[in-house]
Amino acid sequence: MITVEQIVNNQDYKTIALGPDALVAEIAEVMTSKHLSLVVICSEGGQVIGVVSWRDLVKAIAEISGDTSNIKASELLTKNPTACNIDDDIHDVLKTMIKRHFEHMPVVQYGRLVGMVNMIDILKALNAENDMVRRDNQDERV
């Protein structure tokens, strides 16, 4: 069984979290500079409040005529997003992501953000697991 923790521990990037008072421009700059399509919004204590996606940003800009520079993350985030726990099996996480049409999911431990997983991370881990099983099966046949 591969856990979310194994994926998070092997990532070559850090999860970016912003506070609820982050402005649209800051969120967009972080997403652009870090090549992200989703940013987690956390309280000062690290509790996940919500997420802001590119879709949320575009929707806010489209719906508001005029100056959007004072819009805060707290005004456009998706509240109480589905998250997984650090010790969850990635097969279960992948099933949830497929069912709910997610590409990313915050990872929590004791209610606090500890990382983020995405479908690519999970698929890479599953592919590596399948390669190991295939090699083991070939070794048994020899």
Model description:
The protein has 142 residues and is of the alpha/beta class. It is 46% helix and 21% strand. It contains six helices and seven strands, in the order H-E-H-E-E-H-H-E-E-H-E-E-H. The protein has helices at 4-9, 24-34, 54-63, 73-76, 90-100, 119-141, and strands spanning 17-18, 38-42, 48-53, 78-79, 84-85, 104-109, 112-118. The chain has a four-stranded mixed sheet. The longest helix has 23 residues, at 119-141. The radius of gyration is 18 Å and the shape is elongated. The mean pLDDT is 89.
Describe the secondary structure blueprint for this structure:
Layout: H1 4-9, E1 17-18, H2 24-34, E2 38-42, E3 48-53, H3 54-63, H4 73-76, E4 78-79, E5 84-85, H5 90-100, E6 104-109, E7 112-118, H6 119-141
Helix content: 40-55%
Q: Distance N terminus to C terminus?
A: 26 Å
Total strands: 7
Order the strands across the largest sheet as they lie in space: 1-2-3-4
Low-confidence stretches: none
Classify the oligomer: single chain
Helix and strand run: HEHEEHHEEHEEH
Structural class: alpha/beta
User: Overall 3D geometry?
Assistant: elongated
pLDDT average, as an integer?
A: 89
Could you give a short account of the major beta sheet? 4 strands, mixed
Strand content: 15-25%
Mind telling me the C-alpha Rg? 18 Å
SS summary, helix count: 6
